[in-house]
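Below: protein 1.
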Amino acid sequence: MTNVAVISDPAAAEASLDPIRARLLTELVEPASAADLARRLDVPRQKINYHLKALENHGLIELVAERPKGNFTERIMRTTADEYLIAPQVMGAMTPDPDRSPDRLSARWLLAIATRLIREVGDLITGAARTDKRVATFTIDGRVRFASAAERAAFATELTEAVTGLVAKYHTDAAPAGRDHRVIVALHAVPPTTEPDSAPHTKE
């Protein structure tokens, strides 16, 4: 079972958003049978089985064991990932595209870049899961409070210069065995309701 799976199939996304199926996915992070789930949710087992079949057909849950139960065999199911994320591209042509609005100061472009990030990293995770490999990534997440818009602009300018310098220093066209990596730096205001972050951190 993978830690996180990105759902890029519209039909699978639709299946996962059904209220009962979404609840079943939450319950099935730990293995359970239809009878177990029927008792927990107070829903008839036949109805539970119907929804489980739909989730299994879309690869969102899997069979982990079978056990005799009276005159039939009980199937024990669980989710195929600890967490799921629906990829923005399930919206098809309505998905934000960075090429349509290449304005680095616009919120629309930021969302388009984030959409591409989810799509590309989701594809990497899916491919890595098939080969039982780890996806090499690096993330910095922090918070900064600016005293004025002028300071924010100055920060953006210095950050741009620093990142541009690092890219120029380490980018090598003449590297046959090398692999391209995408660098994304984003800055946005924190919504008022968001809880304070801990100290900035990195992850690989």
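Below: protein 2.
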Amino acid sequence: MFRSSTREVPADPPSVPRHVAIIMDGNGRWAKQRLMPRIFGHKRGVDALRETVKACDALGVRFLTVFAFSSENWRRPADEVSFLMGLFLRVLDSEIERMHERGIRLKIVGNREKFSPELVTLIETAEARTAANSGLTLSIAADYGGRWDVLHALNRLHAEHPERSGQVSEEDLVPYLAMSYAPEPDLFIRTGGEQRISNFLLWQLAYTELYFTDLLWPDFGQKAFDDAIAWYQGRERRFGRTSEQLQAVSGC
């Protein structure tokens, strides 16, 4: 199990983030600016994700988690939701062998109850196909919400261990969270100009560095990713300590 940043200070925060989490915002606005239907922005957003996966793989990032569809996105127009579900199906079907050949492990996190049986089957097939891969772990959060994650974990814990009711520790809960297989994100990126985390990884982002850019997701390429990494590398990661304590530890 990966260690919690609220329980103990990480021994050596990495210069290259182990785990990058991204809210890929701005697809619809990108299309609107070009007088195109929103669906064209989502299609272009898939291309941007491919480029980001390549960039993370080349840099040595071990985990990439992207927010594809939130619990609240069901509120969008029905035709857009239908298109997004269809796009999800097509991308999984067309990309899974390519990811497998590159050693990428795919995980889909979130509530699958509203997904079609066809999509659930494809998700399970894709995860099984890549389960033994040891390269980059790409996690796609779909019908995911941070509050859902914590409540779902609590309910699972209580169902399996009713004797712990009222006495739950962080160590008890963490194995039941959707991202229990990954370290906490080192770097969070949100494109599109909004500066909020929108119910994404609420538990896991406790000490993550938060990077916001006005770039719309389809325009987020290699240079933009490099800029985010450079910003991260300039951060002082204190985890509740003072700058003076960090300097004493480093001997500066």
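Residues 28 and 142 are 18 Å apart (CA to CA).
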